[in-house]
Specification:
There is one protein chain. It is built from seven helices and six strands; from the N terminus they run E-H-E-H-H-E-E-H-H-E-H-E-H. The protein has helices spanning 14-27, 38-48, 52-56, 89-96, 103-113, 129-140, 159-172, and strands at residues 2-8, 30-36, 61-63, 81-87, 117-122, 144-145. It has a six-stranded parallel sheet, sandwiched between helices. The longest helix is centred in the N-terminal third of the chain and has 14 residues, at 14-27. The N and C termini lie far apart (31 Å).
Length: 185
């Protein structure tokens, strides 16, 4: 069984995290470990009308963001990596600087230090020079930066189609087969 950590920050775009959790559950064979930032819980309510508990229901294991002694805070706990979806610039900056003051950032830092896949679906626009420098630093230390950019070649018909494309691309980064979006032929 594969093991993926899913982090959801407070950035706009909680639908990406929700669809990622749903997709991983539907695909099967992947144990999901979820950590929600404090801000994500408010964003989830504002954007989706759902609650954190609705998101947590799709995860196999759920951690409190203040539990820095959780299994995912240690490199000895084996995972295939972590997907932070969406990833706020605050979380991205904290990850880039190894400011491990919460579990989401610590788990991401563990993935980097252990050379495990870390995929950040960074949700911010426009980006100023400080944001860009942070993203470059993250790429230099091994993170995959995967902003949620819609692919018009897929001819999306709905917001769900746009979200599914990004989620499918993120799962591709872990080698998880999926048919969430129309692939180029």
């Amino acid at each position: 069984m594969r093991r993926i950590i899913v982090g959801i920050s407070g950035a706009s775009g909680s639908a990406y995290g929700y669809m990622a959790l749903q997709a991983l559950r539907a695909i099967g064979g992947v144990e999901t470990h979820l950590v929600l930032s404090s801000a994500s819980k408010r964003t989830i309510e504002l954007e989706t009308g759902s609650t954190a508990a609705d998101f947590e229901a799709f995860a196999d294991v759920v951690y409190r963001n203040d539990d820095i002694a959780a299994a995912i805070a240690s490199g000895s706990f084996l995972t295939d990596g972590m997907l932070v979806v969406p990833c706020s610039m605050k979380s991205a900056a904290a990850i880039a600087l190894s400011l491990d003051d919460n579990l989401l950032v610590r788990a991401a830092d563990v993935c980097l230090k252990e050379k495990r896949r870390l995929v950040l679906v960074v949700r911010e626009a426009p980006l100023h020079l400080g944001h860009l420098r942070t993203l470059v630093q993250l790429a230099e230390i091994g993170a995959v930066i995967l902003p949620p950019i819609p692919a018009m070649y897929a001819a999306p018909k709905s917001v769900d189609d746009v979200v599914a494309h990004t989620v499918g691309k993120a799962l591709d980064q872990f080698g998880i087969a999926n048919d969430l979006f129309k692939r180029w032929r």
